[in-house]
Amino acid sequence: MLGFAFLLAVITYYADDVVSKLPADHVCRSDVTKIGRIWTLFPPFILGFVGLALANTLHLLPDLTLHLRDNFLWSTQDVHVVLSKLATTCSTFVLTVAMAGVGLGVHLRGLASVGLGALYVGLASSVILAAFSFGLLELVL
Fold this sequence. Notes:
Elements: H1 2-20, H2 34-41, H3 45-57, E1 63-68, E2 77-82, H4 83-104, H5 108-114, H6 116-140
Antiparallel strand pairs: 1-2
Helix pairs in contact: 1-6, 3-4
């Protein structure tokens, strides 16, 4: 998860560089200020995702037991909830929705107009993430 956060920082930096070089008619109104451009490229939910990943890594998420009373939906029972697994499942779902949103926002004509630079940035970030992950695996294992 921390490797993903590192990759996200690299992508945000290069995406900001690419957006700053676009002509003025391609830039959104929220990109007028530097803060607006950062929040456009770096959505706030990423901070929550990284925070949950860090809390999960440090084992700060407790296990819970829910004591359910008899109801028309369920019978009386105790439900054991592992909060770290629940957070992992929720973060996977939110990440999937975010990636779908990114994919739906991609226009091939716009991507072609950016040129091969975007392809090289994606390739470089993938190589950096692979090397970082391999290094961590070698260090840990």
